[in-house]
Amino acid sequence: DTGVSQNPRHKITKRGQNVTFRCDPISEHNRLYWYRQTLGQGPEFLTYFQNEAQLEKSRLLSDRFSAERPKGSFSTLEIQRTEQGDSAMYLCASSPTGLAGSRTGELFFGEGSRLTVL
Amino acid sequence: AQTVTQSQPEMSVQEAETVTLSCTYDTSENNYYLFWYKQPPSRQMILVIRQEAYKQQNATENRFSVNFQKAAKSFSLKISDSQLGDTAMYFCAFLLASGGSYIPTFGRGTSLIVHP
């Protein structure tokens, strides 16, 4: 078990370009979350998958954002036509279902992908 | 919708002393979980401690303990014998136990600095 892996760790792009982030969750974790975090703020929910199904998207998520989780394994988050306001840390977290006892509800986070839009 | 409020943007404490971080939340539900997560500088967020709302006993994990006041919707974190490695952002989080979308809501965080 190597933990949640996110790539790239850092991305600098020009406004208007597309970027894609990848998240590899812990094996057999069927829940996967994307959060966005800006300086001085807590993680803000973007979207949530259970297996390959995208069950919920934040209403704050614009149409420029899309996420996939093919085959219920890794996930990608794509931002099209980036804007300076998209600059943030994008966090991925995973969680198993049916985790009993003291671990129920715990999210396991990756180190995040930091996006800077110039 | 549930909300989580952390009213202390920054806190500091001397090494070996005790510090308490505050968290309040708003919900009309009765069955939920509360969490404190720690995010060290440039490292991933990890769970510190977890509380189930139906349990009256406050959770403890070594030097970390909570004061859970369900009626007041308050969930504070006490760190005893503070260590330099406790320097981090601390986030309070709320999760409905059932009937919800199973998506944790986080507060804005408290930056804790432990001084030698």
Describe the structure.
The complex is a heterodimer of chains A (118) and B (116). Chain A has no helices and 11 strands. The mean pLDDT of chain A is 91. Chain A starts with a strand and ends with a strand. Chain A has 118 residues and is mostly beta strands. Chain B is built from no helices and 12 strands. In chain B, strands 2, 5, 6, 10, 11 and 12 form a 6-stranded mixed sheet that branches. In chain B, strands 3-9-8-7 form a 4-stranded antiparallel sheet, with no helix packed on it. Chain B has a two-stranded antiparallel ribbon with strand order 1-4. Chain B is globular and about 45 Å long. The N and C termini of chain B lie far apart (41 Å). The mean pLDDT of chain B is 94. The interface between A and B is medium-sized, with 26 and 26 residues.
The dominant shape of chain B is: globular
Sheet with the most strands, sense and barrel status of chain B:
6 strands, mixed
- The helix count of chain A comes to 0
Count of DSSP helices of chain B?
A: 0
Largest interface: A-B, 26 and 26 residues
Share of β-strand residues of chain B: over 45%
Q: What string, H for helix and E for strand, traces the elements of chain B in order?
A: EEEEEEEEEEEE
**Estimated radius of gyration of chain B:** 14 Å
Multimeric status of the protein: heterodimer
H-E string of chain A:
EEEEEEEEEEE
Range of helix content of chain B: under 10%
Shape of chain A: globular
Strand elements of chain B, count: 12
Q: Decide which structural class fits the backbone of chain B.
A: mainly beta
Nearest-angstrom radius of gyration of chain A? 14 Å
Query: Span from first to last CA of chain A?
Result: 36 Å
- How many distinct beta strands of chain A? 11
Unreliable spans of chain A: none
